[in-house]
Amino acid sequence: MHFNEYIDSQKDRFLSDLARLVKVRSVREDAKDGAPFGDGPKKALDEAVAICAEHGFSMTNFDYYAGETDLGNDPALMILAHLDVVDEGEGWTKPPYEMTVEDGKLFGRGTMDDKGPALAALYAMEAVRECGIELKKGVRLVLGCAEETGSEDMEYYFSKRPCLPYCFSPDAAYPLIHLEKGRFAPYFSKNWEADTAIPRVLRINGGTTPNIVPCKASVVLLGITAAQVQPFCDEYKEKTGANFVLTEEFNCEGGVCCKKLVITAEGVAAHASEPFKGINAQTALLSLLCALPLADNESTNAIHALNKLFPHGDTKGETVGIAMEDDISGDLTFNFGVLELTEDGLTACFDSRVPVCATKENVFDVVDAALSKEGFALREDAHMIPAHHVPKAAPIVKTLLSVYEQYTGEKGEAFAIGGGTYVHHIEGGVAFGCEMPGVDYRLHGPDEFADLDTLLLSAKMFAEAIVRLCGE
Question: Which of 68, 222, 262, 438 is deepest in the core (most CB within 10 A)?
């Protein structure tokens, strides 16, 4: 029997195993003794250990950071997947932790990210074994427990195990990702003495997550009215594309009453790797504030400095001086994503996805100088993560693309992304599957789903890759 036929024969068992994994709410929680990422990921790894045992594989548990199981000796290929998931959020029409099968679609948190692909890799290994295919080198499946929250699991795992010559992660998209931009997302701050001049800003609450284009940002003002501000809001709605909502509030403290004006900017959220797809409410609000007749004080000066460095619509870091591109990575992208300003200081953060040509000198040092000139200071832990690049001529890239073309009939091309995957810090690692081009699997959103046919096809492609990379 060919391994493709074997995988087809295991469809019902695959569905049963995946339902068991989906049932575990493997969202990271506070660490406990013996559970570094909380009970959920721990239970998911325990379930994976049990499933592996039922399939004839022994899994080594690395203190609930990750598990590994091998097929054959002297492993040369590592397949790296994860069992943890993001929380369910709101808006589901199906139970998030009870897999629902409808018309070949498997609904449930983790079905595509990444429990389904992890299981496809296990079934690929079993198919190779059951079909009696001899391997010259072994293959290793590693299942992590904290990919969604920073990949601390892999830091621990690789302190115990070496990298292997070949590595791919089925936690992204087909055909193949060979380049992941680097990231520079530093926090910076500035402090000053509060004063009583009016009109003035009391506080600004912008975005809270650097890797998301803020869809809302608000400011509280003292000493200015809605009637005075409305014309500016109308003007800057046209200039920025953001909407501005005005609300007047009365506050009485210590027998003193005052009227405060709240301006809420409403934009459009987007991922920081594609900031041009959103409308940044935070930068739109700053541009509006710079047009208002505010008092000449430290907070106003800081607002003008931020608007100067990070003007609305600059999604390439041109004004701060780090816009760049190269032929293999494309443009640097830039998102001013976090801001909290009070009467005596501010904390902020931007997120830039940097190409292969980015260096400490042309990114970090340039930003540091630009911020320092305006009186801002980078936090001491600021650092840049370089881009991850595997040449298209690398054997693993050529092999996996050839497998993809054989099994899909589509052209296999390696591409670059602005985000990062599990293999970003693994030399020679690439991302291969399991999302098919043009399909929205609703990852991290309500009603996440996977296609059963796609997962089974992925298992076949993984089996073919194992044979080609480890059997020759």
Answer: 68
